[in-house]
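Quick review question:
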């Protein structure tokens, strides 16, 4: 099962990337995530481990399976008995406009249990993805209007 959500954010990609990759702060700006922990601390990086708790879903542990700072994309992957899931975040600049950012969130589930769980939790997961995208847009654009400078990460990918 695959689900994609695209949203345009009226601020530069560096700003959106800094907010999105600071996963431990997600609960401060989105109701889609109750708790986020970067296991071992530090910053989001390839092979890092993230624990997320979302409303009406069990806690989930994700591994960073892709992290490309230069291309502004990363993928969280979760494997379990009989199933696997991934959530990919990819940022682009629409039509060469460096003042705006398109965020594409792709969620995929596979496997014999993954497919069954996808059908059971589809509405909840879809709602969380929609909320996360809308809240990211609101948070980034509000910070931009307030004149808060973007935090530029120094990670290379």
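Suggested answer, residue by residue:
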């Amino acid at each position: 099962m695959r689900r994609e959500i695209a949203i345009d954010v009226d601020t530069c990609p560096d700003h959106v990337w800094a907010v999105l990759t600071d996963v431990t702060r997600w609960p401060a700006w989105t109701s889609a995530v109750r708790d986020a922990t970067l296991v071992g601390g530090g910053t989001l990086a390839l092979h890092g481990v993230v624990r997320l708790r979302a409303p009406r879903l069990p806690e989930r542990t994700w591994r960073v399976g892709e992290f490309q700072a230069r291309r502004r994309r990363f993928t969280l992957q979760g494997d379990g008995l009989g199933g696997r899931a991934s959530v990919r975040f990819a940022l682009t600049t629409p039509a060469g406009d460096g003042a705006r950012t398109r965020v594409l969130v792709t969620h995929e589930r596979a496997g014999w249990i993954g497919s069954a769980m996808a059908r059971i939790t589809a509405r909840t997961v879809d709602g969380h993805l929609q909320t996360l995208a809308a809240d990211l847009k609101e948070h980034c654009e509000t910070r931009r209007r307030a004149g808060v400078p973007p935090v530029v990460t120094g990670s290379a990918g």
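Why it works: The chain is about 30% helix and 35% strand. The chain has one domain: 2-145.
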